[in-house]
Amino acid sequence: MLSARLTLAAAALCAGITAAAAKDIPPGDVKIVDGKLAEAVSDTAASAADGRKFFADRKLGNCLACHANSDLSEQQFHGEVGPSMDGVGARWTPEELRAIVVNSKAVFGAQTVMPGFYSLEVGKDVAEKFQGKTILSAEQVESIVAYLATLK
Amino acid sequence: MSRKLILAAATAAVVSVGGALVASADPVDEELVIDGEIPMVIRTKAPEGHPFDEVLSGWLFRTPETRSLEEDTFTNPGMLYVERGEEIWNTVEGEAGKSCASCHGDAAETMAGVAAAYPKWDADAERPINVELQIDKCRENNMKAEPYKFDAPEQRALTTFLKHQSLGKPVQVDLSQGDMQSWWDQGKEVYYTRTGQLNLSCASCHEENNGKYIRADHLSQGNVNGFPTYRLKQGNMVLLHSRFRGCIRDTRAEFPAPFSDELMALEVYTTWRGTGLSVETPAVRQ
């Protein structure tokens, strides 16, 4: 049981790296047009259930830091810097949600506070261990997009 | 029955999320009087050229429990550092055989209101210095003692003690001295520059989103009138440049050295943003 868990955890850690080598669209090649990103950035099957976890995980999306979300009411401390996620899947299409998660500044403009989660347009002096890296992997972005689309 | 309970619990949870969104989002409307005797200015008209109309102390953004800790010097955990700082003030150190008190006497008299005007222009260094660097300057030149290592417990205690001698006095930096204005300009630039993988500036949180929750943190205006500050999260006194470092680190950026030009400029600018607020040292924060 423990070793199975460890293997799973190791697999999860590697996922971003191996997937990046395979069939992801590199962050620099992503084309957001009219606030939409039609093509998935990863062809790994997206999982809304995983996306729900990544949304809350402080080390990954940490989306709850800024967005309240009634679907995650078991989690404490929902932020309010951004809009509530309730009904977000009805307000935006998956193509729009993908564009916002990948690089919200390409949708809302340079002034938006929301980080680009799959973008290398970042601030100055990025810490060494984050240089050249995106906040989320392509697969994690797709899972979060799949999750958000369920919030209707 | 159990289904009803689950439903009730779920409803309560949703309501509590909604409640957090609305009810506690704004700073409170309260007065701060230390020990029922010393009134603090925690809201005041912003100086000219400030993006806000009114500047607010971070105290107004904290929970009732945290606020009450600061109201009473008996419960304020930062007061232990004030006491330690007083001991250091009276302790002889260095080759000159002097303590702070040897030259400055009773700090309650000689240091009253002094730290409220820091950072200030230092003609010798040709740059602004803060209280920490003023202490080091005195130690090196007058006591013939070593400057403190950054964040040494003695540096925290003595800085806290000195700032506390200005408790209740309004923060007022003098931008007319030396090149202070250009340091203010540089600090403003730092304030609005986005850093790190998360691509955030000071303004992203403390100007555009103060009053809102970022997870469990209630964002304040980021005024620095309470520093050094007792942070419950760390269970310790925190120097301003440590706090700068923590904020910059959280944007996933490399942080400048403490007391570097960049952070000293930021201290000049952020101190000015809180002009007129009372020195609250030791403030108690989350």
Give me the CATH architecture of the largest domain in chain B, please. Answer: Orthogonal Bundle
List low-confidence stretches of chain A: none
CATH class of chain A: Mainly Alpha
Distance between the termini of chain B: 40 Å
What order do the strands of the largest sheet of chain B run in, or round the barrel if closed?
10-9-11
- What would the principal axes of the Cα set say about the shape of chain A? globular
Largest sheet of chain B: 3 strands, mixed
CATH homologous superfamily placement of chain A: Cytochrome c-like domain
Description:
The complex is a heterodimer of chains A (152) and B (286). Chain A is mainly alpha-helical. Chain A has a single domain (2-149), classed as Cytochrome Bc1 Complex, Chain D, domain 2 (Orthogonal Bundle). In chain A, 39% of the residues lie in helices and 0% in strands. Chain A is built from six helices and no strands. The longest helix of chain A is centred in the first third of the chain and has 21 residues, at 2-22. Chain A is globular and about 35 Å long. By secondary structure, chain B is an alpha+beta fold. Chain B folds into two domains: 27-72 and 176-285, Cytochrome Bc1 Complex, Chain D, domain 2 (Orthogonal Bundle); 79-164, Cytochrome Bc1 Complex, Chain D, domain 2 (Orthogonal Bundle). Chain B is 41% helix and 10% strand. Chain B contains eleven helices and eleven strands. In chain B, the strands form five sheets. In chain B, strands 10-9-11 form a three-stranded mixed sheet. A two-stranded antiparallel ribbon of chain B has the order 1-2. The chains are: A mainly alpha (152), B alpha+beta (286). The A-B interface holds A 58, 62, 64-66, 68, 70, 73-74, 76-81, 84, 113, 115-116, 121-128, 130, 133, 135 and B 10, 13-14, 17, 20-21, 25, 193-201, 204-205, 208-209, 212-216, 219, 248-249, 251-255.
